[in-house]
Amino acid sequence: MRILALLMLFLCVSCYEDDEDVAKYLRDFGFSSGGDDGVADQTSFKGSLVKFQEYYNLPVDGTLNVATLKLMRTPRCDNEDATSAICEC
Fold it and tell me: The pTM is what?
């Protein structure tokens, strides 16, 4: 059972090669990670993760924890999430 859990964690983490992939995911779905050039600094990257985690009622710590990665890996449509709920207007 422990090996299965480790394998699942590895598969979940390996779907995103680096922070740039995660930043693109967050940007694509309306959580505003980085600017138009796709570059995200650590502050905006962490802030985007926090918004994502809050929006989906995940444990909020601003890191790519298992729950966050698992949700990001879930198949979904290509539409942005409800931006009015996540923007700081």
Answer: 0.65
Name the residue with tokens 């699942």.
8
Helices 42-55 and 19-28 cross at an angle (nearest 10°) of: 50
For residue 73, give every residue at least 6 positions away whose Cβ sits within 8 Å of its Cβ, in sequence order, or none. Answer: 12, 15
Which of 37, 47, 35, 41 shows the shortest CA–CA distance to 19? 41
In angstroms, the CA 25 to CA 28 distance is 5
CB 70 within 8 A of CB 8: no
Per-residue pLDDT of the chain (89 residues; tens, 9 = 90+): 556 554 454 544 445 557 788 888 888 888 875 555 555 577 788 899 999 999 999 999 999 899 999 998 888 776 666 554 444 43
